[in-house]
Polysaccharide biosynthesis protein (Bailinhaonella thermotolerans), 492 residues
Amino acid sequence: MRLIPRFRKSAKSGLPTLIIGAGEAGRTLARALRSSPSYGLTPIGFLDDDQGIRRAAGLPVLGRTHDVAEIARSTGARAALVAIPSLTPSKIAALIEQAAAAGLLVRYLPSFLAAVERDMRVTDLQRLSLPRLIGREEVHVASERARQLITGRRVLVTGAGGSIGSELCRQVKRHGPSALYLLDHDESNLHQLHLQLNGSGLLDSNEIIIADIRDRNRIDQLFAELRPELVFHAAAHKHLPLLERHPCEGVKTNVLGTQHLVEAAQKYDVERFVLISTDKAADPASVLGATKRLSELVVQAAADGPTRVASVRFGNVLGSRGSLLSVLADQVSRSEAITVTHPDVTRFFMTIEEAAALVVEAAAMAEYAETFVLDMGDPVAIVDLVHNYTEQLNVPEVTIKFTGLRPGEKLNEKLFSETEERVPTAHPKVWATRATPPPPGLDKLLGELYDAAAINDDIRARALMRRILPEYRPAQRPETSASVGAPYPDGF
């Protein structure tokens, strides 16, 4: 892979843009963009799988198409244009997913050869419409208050190598912390993140930390040594079906791991601590939701301590690893039937950029163990999202196969439980809940839960979660409709 120095945007230049495809279409497009600066896109190089091409239209070929995320971060690219008209819609979908996951503005040319004959006019570009997918405009959350909170401070991010953690690290780094500590138990994730943030994968920085949040002594040692001032806790087990099968693992990481971090934060004078939770914690029906609600209670129990603490609930995050869009793009790329659990299932959606910005904003607004939630509008029907996605890619027909809700999965999520009061905050698009007193005997009951998890007693662990959380009602698997596997025509 051949890299160039990071693009420095001048006052007159447009967004630095990668062109995927160095063939005739891509070269024509590059020339058209350079002659049309009013369009706001400045091509800086190509991606192409033909390793024999080193330059095209006066621009370097920076690497292969699957290198888009790495090249975007090393060059400072902000947009990507897919300019390979001969590609099938399924392959275009895969490229768009990769580029979007890297945080790029993505546009593509219509997938037909006639576009070449019309000289690839810039007006042929189409943008994958995010509002059309999630039913609302993207919310810009970050404020000057949040920037001032981070600038010059020591920041620790747990789960730093994950999708949310890595985006959070990128946003925090832009605000100029004095130190940014990246904690993860997966060295491969840390290697990739270090490469993205610093252009180097040597892992030779003291800010790279391998640790398991289940290890109380290790966490205590790290906090004593690093003395972080802000902690963003993104490390978690979060795959719903796996935690239904292995509930004790969810308890060990999501609940006990959070407790280790909160205790260390209080002991070593951390100013602010923010837990990343999920909308599944509101009246939980799954082990995932129950363990994350318990982690919220652990945070709320620290409300009177020296550290300002808060939790943030996310909906489904587009662009995260294993998210709906990544699964959808994979199925489209393979020309497979698209699997949806139930015809009526709905979810709240947010972008990965919104999610990370909300975490930073929550840290700035935290006063007394609030739980913050982004105003995500109305829930989106998964079937509608599938059709909106494939229509934008010009996929003429899709087949949807209904597989049935999985154990612990709700038909419809909600952001607040029946007993929580929703209150406004200083940000018009962020809501909060008031901290509720922890249930009597929480410490003792949590101790019993940890003991059950330590010996992998799933039955007792489930029983204790129900005892601590009366609102935890494990979901039963409902029947799917008679239309299982039936084809849905385009535009249904």
User: Anything to note?
Assistant: The domain at 144-468 is CATH 3.40.50.720 (Rossmann fold).
